[in-house]
What does this fold into?
Amino acid sequence: MARVRLEHVTKRYDDQGDVVTAVDDMNLDIDHGEFICFVGPSGCGKSTTMETIAGLTIPTEGEIYIGDREVTNLPPKDRGIAMVFQNIALFPHMDVYDNISFGLRLRDYPQDEIDRRVERAADIVQLEGMLNRMPEEMSGGQRQRVAIARAIVREPDVFLMDEPLANLDAKLKVHMRTELQRLHKELDTTIIYVTHDQEEAMTLSDRIAVLDSGQLQQIDPPLTCYNEPDNLFVAGFIGSPSMNFVEGTVTETTLETPNFSLEFNPSSIDGVGVGDDVTLGIRPEDIYPGELKSEVPDPSGMITATTDILEPMGDEIFAYLLLGDGETSMSQELATNDQLLMSIDPDSDLEEDDEIGVVIDRRNVHLFDSATGEAIVHDLIPYEAEGTASSSEVESDD
Amino acid sequence: MATPTDTQEQSSDGPLQRWTQSAIQNPDKVYRALFYAAMVFFLVTTLFPFYWLIVLAVTPEGNLLSGSFLPTVNLFGVSGTFPLPVPKGFNPGAFVTVFEQVPFHLYMLNSFALAVTTTVIVLFVASLAGYVFGRLRFPGRALLMLGILAISYFPPAAFVIPLFQAFAGNAPITIPFTSIPLFTPPRLLNTPGSMVLPFSALFMPLSIFILTTFYGQIPDGLEDAARVEGTTRLGALFRVIMPLSAPGVATAAVLTFIAVYNEYFFSSIMATSPEAAKWSPIVGGILSYQTQYTTQYNLMAAASIVGVLPVVILVIVAQERIVSGLTSGALKE
It folds into this structure.
């Protein structure tokens, strides 16, 4: 049974005198059969973390365990892993059969066993009848399936997938995504999957590990990451389009932001005190047009805004709202105080530069400490709702 | 007013002027002409000696020194010298005599064996070096590479005397500037060892350079994939990186093979006399047709032709690979 554990794994590179820390004190405990996604922006250390598990990179500090064995310094071939690479990395001078059977032939399996396994792997990824083709004669999706077959044929303890779908077109990506899910169900193997696409991470994984600047930000099931992000980074990274952030200050009865105020009772929430600087996080779907106020369970007061840009997506419209006399914000900062993004019904007759009133669902508002970025609370239910508030506190364990 | 005069002038021009005019309009013409000129030049300079060898080889020995190879031809009363040498007589038997007088096939075998051994050694060691230089980052890499290339700047003659002394195996090697003996080398003169070792060292830098370029271009992902699949780094080199660099490997192999096959300087010294049993190479064999009193040019020419045939065949077979190896070096994943 392949449980994968990383203990205090750190990887530092010496880049011409500058020490670059790619992975910073990473601790992970991945159960047998789990599908884990590493997500994060480019350069966050997710690929390096995977390479340390694969053995392609030896960590500077820390230990790695696969199953009950410590594998920190073992070469990749002795770790019981298989890997699917972003650039697919089929051997161009070998046909599909040779590619798939490469690892088996190296391990001196008997010929009939190799044939049997290759056939079964080809069957699982639906490559029957293509075993004699050369990689260059195949489409991107077929090549990717060969790469997956090459990985499953050895029946490894752990699958490592480094952005395996990144080079495929959008339609194929969705198709391969379902195939991967089916495969996971069929094989019952631990899968560690690296992606920068949070949508892939949400749909595929049992748990998501969000990484930034070499550090683990949160590891939780997808919906927990979405609904109860541990900090500003996770909140902004998970969800597309991403969460609105507005900076504000806590007063006796409200949260004051530059353009609007939210009524709530600070004393009902642990960790918030009058005068604190907090960052408000609101997902686009938790902002409603004023006329729907009666349907929102716990609406805020009406906020007036001007629509700026509308992005019709078919099933919904993303509307950029300018608050107060706000100008279009071009800043790349996390908090956009003068701008809100909301998702509205596709049938809406809203037009650009309309003046509208919107309300915010206070049950789905996140508060973060502006200084540390840590999450404080994930709803602003006032007064009586003590019970709900406690359950929504940040959960660090699974 | 000017136009009619211009046309008139143009039509009265000679062919060269007309060609020049059109070449100005169409510069491609000039490039093509230059290309043909260069091609003809190279073909003549490379093929004429070979033709001259054939003429010499088939001319019977007795006719070699009498008369001219440039015959006088009488064409419709105008007599002149034919501009190309032609054989004086026809004696294809020289190609057989070559093997009867001297065991020339043994000399060829010597050269062939030396060339193959050296090529194998060079490819193996240069592959390891090429892998390190092409794929790993480590401090001092550029300096080390420069050092290796510097070896190829040395004239081989600089190594002859110390190597001869060492391979003679008479005296122990001492630490420089002292008389402290280190070890007595085995006597390698007149054995392939005394030739293969210096050849390998001398031809190594070029191969390292070629293979470094090629191995450096193989995507890291392929090596990683091979290692995850179950090879060591070395296994990945020989199972994946080397086959994918086939044009580069072929180029390095052919260049090394030809250089050693044609080598004479070292082997003439390391083989103390030009005998096949002492691993004298082809050139040693060719020179054996020259005795104190006679020089059988026709046999020397015939032997030269026979000796060059394996290389010609090799180049024809490997031509495509060499050309792509020398020019492109690009590799698709």
In short: Strands of chain B lie at 72-75, 78-81, 173-174, 181-183. DSSP finds 14 helices and four strands in chain B. Chain B has two domains: 4-81, 95-332. The CA atoms of residues 217 and 331 of chain B lie 7 Å apart.
